[in-house]
Write a structure and sequence with these properties.
Helix content is 3%, strand content 49%. The protein is mainly beta. Strands 3, 4, 5, 8, 9 and 10 form a 6-stranded antiparallel sheet that branches. It has a 4-stranded antiparallel sheet with strand order 1-2-7-6, with no helix packed on it. A hairpin with a 5-residue loop joins strand 4 and strand 5. The radius of gyration is 14 Å and the shape is globular. The termini are far apart.
């Protein structure tokens, strides 16, 4: 199994910056792909940034150019650097990971508890 723990979420002013971290533990060698998702109350969860096994980074259009995903492979930490934050970025942010066999299905079976990011209107 894989355990994921997010940290770094807080309230930040409009136009501000923030970096989230996700630390993986357990059977981390099972991870073939991992990335960041977010969900606001009453809205669908959306994938915002994914770092796959081929080191390809994919971003949602809503965050492209503002957010950057990166990782420390040795320490098994995933980061999300966020800049130019706006009200619509307010959501609970989740780190998720997928096993190799799950990639074809597009499933991320391991999830953290989430970290809240709030950008006041």
């Amino acid at each position: 199994q894989v355990q994921l723990v997010e940290s770094g979420g807080r309230s930040v002013g409009y136009g501000g910056s923030l970096t989230l971290s996700c630390t993986a533990s357990g059977q981390t060698d099972l991870i073939a792909s991992w990335g960041w998702f977010r969900q606001a109350p009453g809205k669908q969860r959306e994938g915002i940034a994914v770092f796959d096994s081929f080191r390809t980074k994919t971003y949602a259009n809503s965050v492209k150019g503002r957010f950057t995903i990166s990782e420390d492979s040795a320490k098994k930490i995933l980061y999300l650097q966020m800049t130019d934050l706006r009200f619509d970025d307010t959501a609970r942010y989740y780190c998720a990971a997928a096993r190799r066999e799950s990639l074809a299905r597009g499933d991320f079976e391991y999830w953290g508890q989430g970290s809240q990011v709030t950008v006041p209107d």
